[in-house]
Amino acid sequence: MKTETPGTVPADGAIAGAVAGGVVESVLYPIDTIKTRLQAAHGGGKIVLKGLYSGLYGNLAGVLPASALFVGVYEPVKKKLLETFPDNLSALAHLSAGAIAGAVSSIVRVPTEVVKQRMQTGQFATAPNAVHMIISREGFRGLYAGYGSFLLRDLPFDAIQFCIYEQLRMGYKLAARRELNDPENAIIGAFAGAITGAVTTPLDVIKTRLMIQGSTKQYKGICDCVRAIMREEGSHVFLKGIGPRVLWIGIGGSIFFGVLEKTKQVLSQGRMGIRNCDSPNENRIDRK
Description:
This protein is mainly α. The chain has one domain: Mitochondrial carrier fold, CATH 1.50.40.10. 76% of the residues lie in helices and 0% in strands. The chain is globular and about 60 Å long. The N terminus and C terminus are likely disordered. This is Mitochondrial carrier protein.
């Protein structure tokens, strides 16, 4: 017997995703900036700690719709796959739903990530200026620099993180025989985020290098980037920024899933409250 609760209304999922994504981005942006600068630095270069919120507002303009799109796609796809797959393949359903939602939302997420990381490394002062200069120098496809590496990192990331989270929730609910409370959702989210963040750090390093290189084209692609890093800096560079990344994504997972579940719950209760308020009126009309 499946342990999933009834599917979330798509609009509720999208709203909850936007709220959760916005909260996480606002709270943890400085850690992400430090991580990006660590990964972008070559050799023993100094890490600048000024302007840790550089590009936040411009990034939120992309994060909100991207997060809404991700969860808005994930919830109905997950529901459909869970109905289609046998019970013992629920993990595959969650993996697939996460990957599909990640692929769809990448249309918005990649340009947002490119602009954010260029600003975090001090290349541009504002998001509008970054977009204008990237397009004028590199063309529209400059906004999708490192798209392949982004998918290489984020599709496994989304699939693994949501699979771990959903499977842990299902197991916990079976053991506890009740719905999870807010702290429990947050703790499971932190665990899922930290594990996924650590596993995907090498992919994140490659993605960062490709996205920030701009028109210099230091690397010709993913394979060339890997070879160049191995040759010039050593394999240890693939774990550069793993501390901030695990911290950032672990805390981020806690906040994101905690806020996501709470927002979905509030929206669902609000919708039920509206229906309950409407019912007496309907009954009075019927009796007339």
